[in-house]
Specification:
Elements lengths: L1 E10 L4 E7 L7 H14 L3 E2 L2 E14 L8
Antiparallel strand pairs: 1-2, 1-4, 3-4
Organism: Bhargavaea cecembensis DSE10
InterPro entries: DUF2922
Protein name: DUF2922 domain-containing protein
C-alpha cells in the first residue's frame, strides 16, 4: 500500500497549502512532524500567491491501495 504524508499549513494570506511527502518513514511521531513543520515555516521558502506559510494546521498519513481486476 502506497503512503504519503500530507503537511497542511495556513499561509499569511489565509489560504490553506499542502505539502506532500512520498513514502514517509515508519513510526513518525507527532513531535517529529511538528518539528519538521516548524522548520518549513521558519525557512520562509514555501508559500502560495506570494504569501509564505505562517502556521501548521494539520498532518496526516494517507494510504492508497490498488487492486487489479483485469491485467494485460
Amino acid at each position: 500500500m502506497d503512503q504519503t504524508l500530507e503537511l497542511i499549513f495556513r499561509t499569511a494570506g489565509g489560504k490553506r497549502m499542502t505539502l506532500t511527502v512520498d513514502a514517509p518513514k515508519e513510526g513518525l511521531t507527532e513531535a517529529e512532524v511538528r518539528q519538521a513543520m516548524q522548520e518549513v515555516i521558519g525557512s520562509g521558502v514555501f508559500g502560495t500567491d506570494g504569501h509564505p506559510v505562517e502556521s501548521a494546521e494539520a498532518a496526516r498519513i494517507v494510504s492508497r491501495g490498488v487492486t487489479d481486476i483485469i491485467t494485460a
